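Hi,

I'm pasting everything inline rather than attaching a file, because the server keeps stripping attachments. The sequence lines come first, and each chain or strand is labelled.
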Amino acid sequence: MTVFQRFARRPQLWIGAFVTALLFALALLSLVWTPLPPSKMQIMHRLKPPFDVGLLGNDPYGRDVASMLMVGAWNSLSTAVMAVALGGLIGTAIGLCAAQRRGLVEAALMRFCDVVFAVPPILSAMMLGAVLGAGRFTAIIAIATFMVPVFARVVLASALQIWARDFIMAARSIGKRPFGITMVHVLPNVAGQIIVQATIQLGLAILTEAGLSFLGLGMAPPAPTWGRMLAESQTYLSQAPWLAILPGLAIAFAVFGLNMLGDGLRDLIDPRHRDG
Amino acid sequence: MAVISITQTSLKVLAGAVFGLGLAFSFAGQAEAAKTNLVLGMAIEPAGLDPTIAAPVAIGQVTWQNIFEGLVTIDRDGKIQPQLAKSWTISPDGLTYTFKLQSGVTFHDGEAFDSAVAKASIERARGADSVNPQKRYFASIDTIETPDAETLVLKLKQPAGSLLYWLGWPSSSIVGTKSAADNKTTPVGTGPFKFKAWAKGDKVELVRNADYWNKDKAAKLEAATFRFIADAQAQAAALKAGDVDAFPEFAAPELIGDLKKDEKLSVVIGNTELKVVAGMNNTRKPFDDKRVRQALMMAVDRASVVEGAWSGFGTPIGSHYTPNDRGYLDLTGVHAYDVAKAKALLAEAGYPDGFAFTIKAPQMAYAQRTSQMLQAMFAEIGVKMTIETTEFPAKWVADVFKGGDYDMTIVAHAEPMDIDIYARDPYYFHYKNPAFNDVLKKVEATSDASEQVKLYGEAQTILANDVPALYLFVMPKLGVWNAKVKGLWENEPIPSNVLNEVEWSE
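And the predicted assembly:
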């Protein structure tokens, strides 16, 4: 069975990949083009519904919602990607280290992860916000912190399986150093798991970022974020429902796409889920 | 056995029926008699309950005229009325005020009110270690004499044309000698309501003062509860559900249209003294340059701000003065919206490429939204403004109001006729203009009303030209309350929630 055939049999993967690609494309497009500058206020177009002045309507300041959603996609995705990359990097390092050293080091690292895992990201973002001030940096650190134990656990579990395999024994018996084994043999074999995990966590990171922005702990205005668009549209719900529905849909759409893609990738990579 | 069990069952049924009937009757009874308690909602919870030691208006909005009273009071039309002082005479030179005091007035803790208590109260407010927010209003008082228990004489150093008006303010409330120290948490006054309990973060409860001295003005309600709900959506929900009977200062104009449709509620739009003003640190670069401040003012389209931030409810202002104040001049044209001129002036001041600064904006919707609009408008002239949300009142008071550590801030000034804040030193604007101070001194020195009007006009013009703060708009009072509630103030000549005349109609 070719790789293409395996893809074709998995609509989940296709849908996920398509939605995610669309999202990334819109986000990247916003860097060079949006229908209007997202922070341009045109009071005369205040609260205009979709398909009137702008494609997706205008907010209470007369800003173009479509443009704000596009830039919001970039802000949301870039924050999430950076947070997952940071958290994934540290988490993977911890997991690999714990698998290689075992014993006390493993126990200490994993208990540390348990402690980190016990603090909700919103709470750590609020604490960080008090110290550093709210903003993108705070959001990235808060989300990344939350991701570290997730990656550490996944990587540890997979790495331990690899360490028990015969080829590792072979590598050790010819005198390879443990660090070399980790980098050359273990890491490539757990990479698939890391990618699957990163995709799924990306969805979660977008959701968390939206939550932080909703609470005013995300990027500062005028940068549009989906979370703040939702927060600001609350009181306009009866007058201009699209202001809340559209960013809500955007968040749901992004999380849905990334979850589908993550699940699809997992099935593709994980031999236990392989069919035929 | 079977018989007994049947009897037991029927007994239960009977008991249930009786209980149910009782309930039905009690509900019917409640529906017929008018309610005697009121739940009033406010967006901001005061940090303490003593209006004589801290500035936030929320304190007076709970306590003034409900718990605390003054020598004089200010009525719903903004006029001075006698209260603990029955009457007064002012000597022709304006230097001696003789008050005749009410007799038979007692505080809620039983302490009797007399001239000695009144004197102690004013001495406490003007003393060296007083933290009274309007302490300077008592600065003109030289000595206080009490010839007898019912007479209070204030001897002034110089005439003070507004003294009587100031004596009606929440910060001039008369407090008991024994209870004064604890008023912050357990306020004791002479008013028609007594303090009952304060559940921090939730509500303050008052009960009717059965022994109130003024039978004509005694409270009609048996009890009143102030509930604190910051979120506008939650305010609307509480009003619709009947959890809150009145929101005299509703926080979200965009929801007013929705609430108007509800027949149970009445929406009353009245005047206030709430001037939304973006104050600048006049000693900090580049705001120390008048041209920079003027350029910023010209970058602002006030009409758009009112529309975008407050759904069109509001009146643009050009100075620290509202159209309800005597001698108001419309000075919005002095630095009218003109982007090209603003840019040119900024270049002339040495900032052709603009500059960057931070606004410390409280969390209230009007402040956040107006800040976002200012941010977009300043961007048009190349000025980059960062919005930093600063929690109000605690952090804002500490950082901006007392600390003076800010570039620009935005807040609604609620006190009536408070244009003199620009003559105060220290005050958070750090604005220093001897010419302006002179005008205000002259206002106090004269008791001629037309002369005062002329001088207030001069003061407004100086501010409109100097722009120590960006003058944006006056917020109306968006009052929303149960249609059966009568007696709440429609306008707000002074920040307050006066409840003694409030009652439920049938």
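Chain A has a mean pLDDT of 90.

If the labels don't parse on your end, tell me and I'll reformat.
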